[in-house]
Amino acid sequence: MKIDSSIPPIDPSVNSLKDSVQIQAENRQVVQAVRAVNASGRLGVNDLTFSLDRYTRRPVVKLVNRQTNEVVAQIPNEQVLRLAQEDSKQAKPGR
Predict the structure, then answer these.
(1) In the predicted model, is pLDDT for residue 73 greater than 80?
(2) Can you tell me the distance from the alpha carbon of 8 to that of 14, in angstroms, rounded to the nearest whole number?
(3) Does any domain span residue 52?
(4) By the 8 A CB rule, do 91 and 81 touch?
(5) How many structural domains compose the chain?
(6) Dihedral (C-alpha) 70, 76, 27, 58: value to the nearest 10 degrees?
């Protein structure tokens, strides 16, 4: 499993410590699930990867072919992430 460490783990717009802790806990659960699925060997030549989208800071899980590094599937897909990015920009005046 690969985790993109270049992206901060917490959305800077999260204001409360409680929200921040909850987001981190949810991300840890996803990471644990990704590791468990990869360890099971059920995906054959594929691996799951977890990262945070660099623009929206939302969790992203990808199914990646280990041999070719091709992204076979992504949840949520790229289009959804870009829509969320646009919504975020419109919600924050001055950006």
Answers:
(1) yes
(2) 12
(3) yes
(4) no
(5) 1
(6) 110
On whether residue 73 sits in a domain, the answer given is yes
Residues 54, 7: contact at Cβ < 8 Å?
yes
Tokens of 44: 């054959």
pLDDT at 72 over 70: yes
pLDDT tens for 6-60 read 555 445 555 567 678 888 899 999 999 999 999 999 999 999 999 998 888 889 9
- Per the DSSP assignment, residues forming a β-bridge with 62 are 49, 74
Residue-wise DSSP of 49-70: EEEE-TTT--EEEEEEETTT--
**43, 33 contact by CB (below 8 A):** no
Domain-embedded: residue 11: no
**DSSP single-letter state for residue 3:** B
Interval 73-77 mean pLDDT: 91
Residue 78, domain member (yes or no): yes
- Tokens 């949810």 locate to 26
Two tokens, residue 86? 């646009």
